[in-house]
Protein 1
Amino acid sequence: MTINEVQDEIINEFSLFDDWIEKYDILIDLGKELPAIDPRFKTKEFLIEGCQSKVWLHPEFDGNRISFTADSDAIITRGIVALLLKVLSNRTPKEIISSDLYFIDRIGLKQNLSPTRSNGLLAMVRQIKLYAIAIDARI
Amino acid sequence: MKDISEIRADFPLLGRTVYGRRLVYLDNGATTQKPQCVIDKINEVYTSYNGNIHRGVHAISDMASEAYENAREKVRSFINARSTREIIFTSGTTGSINCVAFSFGERYLKPGDEVVISHLEHHANIVPWQLMCERKGARLRVIPVNENGEIIQEEYLRLLSPRTRLVAVTQASNALGTILPVKLIIEAAHSLNIPVLIDGAQGIQHGVVDVSDMDCDFYVFSGHKIYGPTGIGVLYGKEKWLSEMPPYQSGGDMVENVTFERTTFGDLPFKFEAGTTNFVSAIGLASALDYILDLGREEISKRELMLLSYATERLSAIKGLRIFGNSAEKISIISFLLKDIHQYDAGMVLDKMGVAVRTGTHCAQPVMERYGIKGTIRASLCFYNTEEEIDILISGIEKVTGMFNQKI
């Protein structure tokens, strides 16, 4: 699936729920299902610090695609991280660089990505793109 | 005191909903809502007499100047200062502390001197002193706190020495709610001729503050935390200090005579009010103080203590909930954590239930570190809150624990 196909799928899934609490329930489940990050990468080097919650993000490039593993100390943040990885992990650097993340806004989680909401997510999206740009420049 | 439903009706914002639910506003430690009289007053200034103060000879400038100076007198009498020369309008508590840190530091600090603060301080009462100490080669000393979140008085007394140039402590902790024994702190410092600054950001709105009786050398607070507008704050300082201290910022209105060779500065309090001050908010603040006086400060204290004890009792009954800060004397702030649940997760869910609390370190990282935690959930109550709102908080917390615990 393309990045936008995955985004559209997420939007569809979330459109079934009006209630915020139900949306958070999905995020909590997603957060729980997020594959664990190798503890070796839960270090300062891979830490994206927010004022409210922390995110660890580790890239791995197989010569074609970048895959990410990640974690957060807050479960809702971890759920949003899981959504972002569904969309952006296992993609080519060029796909990541040119992606337009509209799903966050459409499922009503925009406030989580605002610069004032310092949960580390906005910095995480930036970091994913920076990794992609750096890797793309190398190949 | 007025009936609670009448009081709530004075605050238009309290009637709104968020996410289709009734708003339960429990973040009063961060900022308070404004009564209609304050909103009307700001509107009145802009509608009828918005002219720059102390400058024009025209009618509306005079009206604005008069209202501004009346506001200064209102603040003076509210905190019982001796003279309006001792009342400086600033941008807020942070602005006030920065002013003292700079001007007092420039005048009195020498290398090797010490400034004493407590482990409970807000960053605004830490960082300006830190920077001042760096500039002057002075040293910051910190009064430790015990497990209840109270300062250890013997340790404080031990920290005072001939090197101590200033003590700067909060009246009440914004993160834990602890009320500090400021009179004792001031007495001990004064016995060694050390001046004391009291950060009243979390003190002024909860009861009677009398700076003459307290005998502090400086007292600072913000307008927006006492039901007044944002962008206005107060620096009270004893005249003997203010008159010796050099100006902090410089510019218009605070000068007496300016040539390119030399400038002489105006008299107190104007020496510390460079540029056009936020006179509209100062006038709005006076309205807020009138509102508080009308309700009665003793009455406010009594009601807030009742709400604090009700909330403490109900929160304590929740399994896995730990309250941080169990001082015998507290303002109506309760900081807590739920076992195994991140404060951010809890705050996000409470928000969607219409409950506004603050989560995180509350700009007081050192005290969070004291407890080895990354932050708390903080409910800060004030007189317009109700027991019913506390009940909604409790059911919100029960919802949170249900949602997260079954998933772990």
Protein 2
Amino acid sequence: MAEAPKTPPWGDDWMEANRRYWDAWTHFGEQPAERAAPGKPPEPGWAEAADRWWKVMTPPVPPGSRELFDRLMEQGKTFFRFGEAFAASATKGGGAFQSQNVWQQGLRAIAEQWGKAPFDFFQNQNQNPMERFFSAPALGFTRESQEQGQEMVRLTLAYQQALQAYEMVFQNLGTETFSRLQHRLGERAERQEPVMTLRALYDVWVDSSEEAYLELVSTESYAETYGKMVNALMALKHHGRAVMDQAVGAVGLPTRDGLATLQKRQQELRRETVALRRELAELRAQLDGLKGKPRRPATPRPRGARKKSRSRSKEA
Amino acid sequence: MVPLQISPDRILEEMRDFGIRLNQGLRTLGELGDVEVGASAKEAIYEEDKLVLYRFRPQAKVTNPIPVLIVYALVNRPYMLDLQEDRSIIRSLLRGGLDVYLIDWGYPDSADRYLTLNDYINGYIDRCVDVIRDRHGVEAINVMGVCQGGTFSLCYAALHPKKVQNLITTVTPVDFHAGTNLLSQWARHVDVDLVVDTLGNVPGEMLNWTYLTLKPFRLTGQKYLDLVNILDDPIQARNFVRMEKWVFDSPDQAGEAFRQFMKDFYQRNGLIKGEVRLGNKTVDLGQVSMPVLNIFAAQDHLVPPAASQALKRHVGSKDYKAIEFPGGHIGIYVSGKSQKLIPPAICGWLADRS
């Protein structure tokens, strides 16, 4: 990533260039429907256009804001894809959703495109934080025993199976969402409250998805599948660490187990120290009482207490 | 009637507008710079390991002689209670005449892995309470617990009832199996021993991911599209970024404390069964004999109302009051509505018992 300048280059020229980009792209998309391939959005697609725009037009982002920028941009592209899928079916239906058949096709297009979204979400999450935390490390630089290698293979397979079962839970989520979406839209039609904008449709879709998702993940079978997946991952990771520890120990380096023992003993010692300090304070207080001195508090002494005050603090 | 009345032209127009707004919004975000959190002046009066006990500077005449200690959860950071000037429960409590203290647990690292719940509750909390008692020359102080900190406060009050004058619990889980408690359901088949033995401390980012999966479509998608709509207002944008900073500011959890909390509270539901042991003592909620104010949120997706409401059936106190806040788990602290409802209710309730 390029280093962010001190003053972000968000000048008027940049804004104008961006506006022209979107105008030009929109104009491109406004070509008559018959010139576009039937059932397909204009090329490049909106999400793709947004991606290109992001790569070409976006100046360096301040380092502290990068993650938020990425999340915002990712959801922006998601919304573009949502519109793309829906617009394609409208184009196919002659330009509007005047019949039940056409708008249902539109919803199906969304369901096809978006039924995968939650699944992808979990898959992405598995590959992102979970794998980062749990993925097995390399086996080390010494030769592992045959048993260890076999156990690693067994645990890897067990994890893959558990992950697959976990992912399978979500395979019908798109269908369930579609069914709820239809139902909610039907209710709105009865109330004479049609959906007039893509964003409003997106919001109905989110409500439908959350409802379908909640029903799915509230079940005992989901909890079991989730538990098996996490446990399989942990078992794999645990074994990987044990193998690594053995390898590290073999060349005389400190091991994780050894460090854990030290940490545990250190914590026990600190508990004892605190208890002794308290006992000593209580004894001193009693002694003061016997000597007729003012009683000192039998509470911990503030150690290293900071006296500085802060009108506004910046948290780390 | 056709339920969808969206023309392709309209979609195109909407997409164009969205692109331009996204554009403008990114510019606004880029120009915001760092956001500050923590609106009220405070001083550190006691430190131990990573813990810091703060006292907030009074912002009005202190009318209640009994100080209040706020015990925050180990999850996320306590500045949520003092996020910004117009969204600060602490500020409102100070202006209501209370003397407010807060425990900031800090960010545990691998050296803290073997901290147990006993270390937290009978160790850190007890020592903070003693420091405040000494400073004010009182036998007992008021304790206010937040979420998991409320559960800790309950345990503390049950084990040290003479040191707690009044107890306030906010969005506090008590019956961990009551209501639609997804976190509790999901945790039941997880081998917690294996998790802690493998990971040591439990990464905060992992817990955060779990919270996001409670409402994935809203919390990872819709929320950011809503953001695009408010980004033309730098004040609203700054508020959003401040909140976003808090959401993703998740300390790791000390392994042994996490192990016990998950097994004894979430899996075995031991708090209401009288089966939680801290050190050599068993936590008996019947020993919570001081007045109790229990505030819960009607739309709480993390701690369902039923999980908090159960407290009434288990505490020994004859002076018990519950308040239902019409909002969610976070809204109870940061929404405009909460600023008007929660602090006055707490200050008034305490004033009647001081």
